[in-house]
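User:
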Amino acid sequence: MAATQQIQMRINLRANSNRKSDFFGRLYPYIDRNGTLDTRGFCKHMSEHNTIYDRSIVEGVMTTMQGCLVELLSQGVGVKLTGIGTFYPTVQSVPGGAESVEEAQTLGADNLVQGVHVRFRPDGTKLDDITSKSMKKNCALTLHMLQVEDGTTTGADGKERKKYKYLPISKYEQQADPDPEPEP
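Assistant: Predicted structure:
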Protein backbone atom coordinates (compact mmCIF):
# COMPACT_ATOMS: atom_id res chain seq x y z
CA MET A 1 0.00 0.00 0.00
CA ALA A 2 1.87 3.04 -1.22
CA ALA A 3 1.09 6.56 -0.09
CA THR A 4 -0.68 8.51 -2.84
CA GLN A 5 1.30 11.62 -1.95
CA GLN A 6 4.67 11.72 -0.29
CA ILE A 7 3.94 14.33 2.34
CA GLN A 8 6.78 14.67 4.77
CA MET A 9 6.48 13.29 8.27
CA ARG A 10 8.41 15.70 10.46
CA ILE A 11 10.72 14.14 13.03
CA ASN A 12 11.90 16.06 16.10
CA LEU A 13 14.87 15.15 18.26
CA ARG A 14 15.15 15.18 22.04
CA ALA A 15 18.02 14.29 24.31
CA ASN A 16 17.85 11.45 26.82
CA SER A 17 17.72 13.34 30.13
CA ASN A 18 18.18 10.32 32.41
CA ARG A 19 21.58 10.98 34.02
CA LYS A 20 21.80 7.33 35.15
CA SER A 21 21.51 6.05 31.59
CA ASP A 22 24.52 5.01 29.54
CA PHE A 23 22.87 6.96 26.73
CA PHE A 24 22.42 10.23 28.64
CA GLY A 25 22.50 13.16 26.23
CA ARG A 26 22.02 11.01 23.11
CA LEU A 27 19.39 12.27 20.70
CA TYR A 28 16.27 10.24 19.96
CA PRO A 29 13.57 10.87 17.33
CA TYR A 30 9.89 11.44 17.95
CA ILE A 31 7.08 12.44 15.59
CA ASP A 32 6.10 16.09 15.35
CA ARG A 33 2.37 15.36 15.44
CA ASN A 34 0.21 17.76 13.51
CA GLY A 35 -2.79 17.30 15.79
CA THR A 36 -5.50 14.66 15.72
CA LEU A 37 -8.56 14.56 13.47
CA ASP A 38 -11.87 13.82 15.11
CA THR A 39 -14.43 11.60 13.36
CA ARG A 40 -16.00 14.51 11.48
CA GLY A 41 -12.62 15.77 10.26
CA PHE A 42 -11.51 12.28 9.25
CA CYS A 43 -14.77 11.68 7.38
CA LYS A 44 -14.41 15.03 5.60
CA HIS A 45 -10.86 14.05 4.62
CA MET A 46 -12.10 10.67 3.32
CA SER A 47 -14.93 12.27 1.35
CA GLU A 48 -12.41 14.50 -0.45
CA HIS A 49 -10.60 11.46 -1.89
CA ASN A 50 -12.58 11.27 -5.17
CA THR A 51 -15.46 9.34 -3.67
CA ILE A 52 -19.15 9.57 -4.50
CA TYR A 53 -20.00 9.66 -0.80
CA ASP A 54 -20.18 12.99 0.99
CA ARG A 55 -18.97 13.60 4.55
CA SER A 56 -22.36 12.90 6.16
CA ILE A 57 -22.66 9.43 4.63
CA VAL A 58 -19.09 8.51 5.54
CA GLU A 59 -19.66 9.87 9.05
CA GLY A 60 -22.86 7.85 9.42
CA VAL A 61 -21.04 4.64 8.51
CA MET A 62 -18.15 5.49 10.86
CA THR A 63 -20.51 6.29 13.75
CA THR A 64 -22.32 2.98 13.30
CA MET A 65 -18.99 1.17 13.03
CA GLN A 66 -17.78 2.75 16.28
CA GLY A 67 -20.89 1.61 18.16
CA CYS A 68 -20.65 -1.92 16.78
CA LEU A 69 -16.91 -2.09 17.49
CA VAL A 70 -17.44 -1.18 21.15
CA GLU A 71 -20.33 -3.65 21.43
CA LEU A 72 -18.32 -6.54 19.98
CA LEU A 73 -15.17 -5.76 21.96
CA SER A 74 -17.20 -5.65 25.19
CA GLN A 75 -18.38 -9.20 24.36
CA GLY A 76 -14.80 -10.43 23.90
CA VAL A 77 -14.95 -10.45 20.09
CA GLY A 78 -11.95 -9.11 18.18
CA VAL A 79 -12.68 -7.13 15.02
CA LYS A 80 -10.39 -7.23 11.99
CA LEU A 81 -10.71 -4.35 9.57
CA THR A 82 -8.91 -5.73 6.54
CA GLY A 83 -6.15 -3.40 5.42
CA ILE A 84 -6.11 -1.61 8.77
CA GLY A 85 -5.72 -4.16 11.53
CA THR A 86 -7.38 -5.99 14.38
CA PHE A 87 -8.89 -4.48 17.50
CA TYR A 88 -9.12 -6.94 20.38
CA PRO A 89 -9.86 -6.80 24.12
CA THR A 90 -7.47 -7.86 26.87
CA VAL A 91 -7.80 -7.79 30.65
CA GLN A 92 -5.44 -6.64 33.36
CA SER A 93 -5.44 -8.76 36.49
CA VAL A 94 -5.44 -7.38 39.99
CA PRO A 95 -1.96 -7.68 41.52
CA GLY A 96 -1.29 -11.21 42.69
CA GLY A 97 -4.19 -12.79 40.81
CA ALA A 98 -5.86 -15.73 42.55
CA GLU A 99 -4.11 -18.68 44.24
CA SER A 100 -6.69 -21.23 43.20
CA VAL A 101 -9.85 -21.78 41.20
CA GLU A 102 -11.76 -21.72 44.49
CA GLU A 103 -10.33 -18.31 45.41
CA ALA A 104 -11.09 -17.05 41.88
CA GLN A 105 -14.69 -18.23 42.22
CA THR A 106 -15.01 -16.59 45.63
CA LEU A 107 -13.59 -13.29 44.35
CA GLY A 108 -15.51 -13.39 41.07
CA ALA A 109 -14.41 -12.05 37.68
CA ASP A 110 -15.27 -8.45 38.57
CA ASN A 111 -12.84 -8.50 41.50
CA LEU A 112 -10.09 -10.34 39.59
CA VAL A 113 -10.08 -7.97 36.64
CA GLN A 114 -8.53 -4.58 37.32
CA GLY A 115 -9.14 -3.23 33.83
CA VAL A 116 -10.26 -4.10 30.30
CA HIS A 117 -8.08 -2.71 27.52
CA VAL A 118 -8.53 -2.38 23.79
CA ARG A 119 -5.44 -3.36 21.84
CA PHE A 120 -4.65 -2.89 18.17
CA ARG A 121 -2.52 -5.08 15.92
CA PRO A 122 -1.83 -3.56 12.48
CA ASP A 123 -2.67 -5.61 9.41
CA GLY A 124 0.42 -7.46 8.24
CA THR A 125 -0.92 -9.21 5.14
CA LYS A 126 1.23 -8.73 2.08
CA LEU A 127 -1.03 -6.27 0.21
CA ASP A 128 -2.22 -4.29 3.23
CA ASP A 129 0.86 -4.36 5.46
CA ILE A 130 0.86 -1.39 7.87
CA THR A 131 3.24 -2.88 10.41
CA SER A 132 5.99 -0.58 11.63
CA LYS A 133 8.63 -1.56 9.04
CA SER A 134 6.18 -1.23 6.15
CA MET A 135 4.75 2.04 7.47
CA LYS A 136 8.27 3.47 7.52
CA LYS A 137 8.60 2.70 3.80
CA ASN A 138 5.41 4.72 3.14
CA CYS A 139 6.64 7.81 5.01
CA ALA A 140 8.89 10.59 3.75
CA LEU A 141 10.79 11.28 6.98
CA THR A 142 12.55 14.60 7.52
CA LEU A 143 14.31 16.07 10.57
CA HIS A 144 12.44 19.14 11.79
CA MET A 145 13.12 20.46 15.32
CA LEU A 146 15.49 19.93 18.22
CA GLN A 147 13.95 19.98 21.70
CA VAL A 148 16.30 21.63 24.22
CA GLU A 149 15.87 22.39 27.91
CA ASP A 150 15.05 26.02 28.61
CA GLY A 151 14.95 26.32 32.40
CA THR A 152 12.08 25.30 34.65
CA THR A 153 8.52 26.33 35.30
CA THR A 154 6.08 25.74 38.15
CA GLY A 155 2.94 23.82 37.31
CA ALA A 156 -0.55 24.47 38.66
CA ASP A 157 0.11 21.76 41.26
CA GLY A 158 3.14 23.70 42.54
CA LYS A 159 5.66 21.17 41.22
CA GLU A 160 8.69 22.36 39.31
CA ARG A 161 8.98 21.03 35.77
CA LYS A 162 11.51 21.31 32.99
CA LYS A 163 10.68 23.81 30.29
CA TYR A 164 11.66 23.19 26.67
CA LYS A 165 12.11 25.22 23.53
CA TYR A 166 12.32 23.97 19.98
CA LEU A 167 15.01 24.96 17.51
CA PRO A 168 14.61 24.25 13.80
CA ILE A 169 17.26 21.70 12.82
CA SER A 170 18.31 23.89 9.88
CA LYS A 171 18.98 26.88 12.16
CA TYR A 172 20.66 24.67 14.75
CA GLU A 173 23.03 23.33 12.09
CA GLN A 174 23.92 26.90 11.13
CA GLN A 175 24.48 27.89 14.77
CA ALA A 176 26.54 24.75 15.40
CA ASP A 177 29.01 25.54 12.59
CA PRO A 178 31.64 27.71 14.33
CA ASP A 179 33.82 28.16 11.22
CA PRO A 180 31.55 28.80 8.24
CA GLU A 181 33.25 28.90 4.87
CA PRO A 182 33.67 32.47 3.61
CA GLU A 183 31.41 33.33 0.71
CA PRO A 184 33.29 33.89 -2.57
